Amino acid sequence: MEIDRILLTQEQLQTRIRELGAILSAEYAEKTPVFIGVLRGAVHFFTDLTLQFSHPCQYDFIGAASYGDGTQTSGRVQLTKDVMTELKGRHVVVVEDILDTGLTLRFVTDWLKSKQPASLKLCVLLDKPERRRADITADYIGFTIPNEFVVGYGLDYQELYRNLPYIGVLKP
Ligand code: XMP
Ligand code: MG
Prior knowledge:
This protein has helices at residues 10-27, 43-51, 103-113; strands spanning 3-8, 34-39, 58-66, 77-81, 91-99, 119-127, 140-144, 150-151, 167-170. With 172 residues, it is of the alpha/beta class.
């Protein structure tokens, strides 16, 4: 397996993340939001995005695994790590790498909503709407992409390629 082509360059990613940071900074200026990153794919997006947030905020992380190997999700989602922060009455922004079938984020957002936050919004770097199986939409989207398996910038194929500074498409 290797990279067929680059879908989003490092510069395109950083430009768009600065825009998202500015939007979130305007909307959450007075709210001290809790940014919750979904491990592990969102790690680079989470750090770059939160560095563009210009007001007080908190960080937390949640782990979810949709036990499937390779490029297909199994549909069964399990929590592998819960948040540490008390979320009741807080403004939560879930930060995730990709909204694909939506099964993972449906599960994660339902779990977090049960903790009674004052608000809960979803911010994803990539949206792949063609493959949606769960009823869920993101509030903030970096890029809408076609139905191709992508890697890099946190996203993996069998745990590799996460450290590419761009988003690429794998050779079939
Ligand atoms: P969904 O929305 O299908 O996403 O529940 C579950 C998880 O699958 C991963 N995923 C991808 N990983 N390239 C990847 O490297 C992709 O194109 C892709 N689509 C989904 C991702 O971790 C997501 O959280
Ligand atoms: Mg993920």
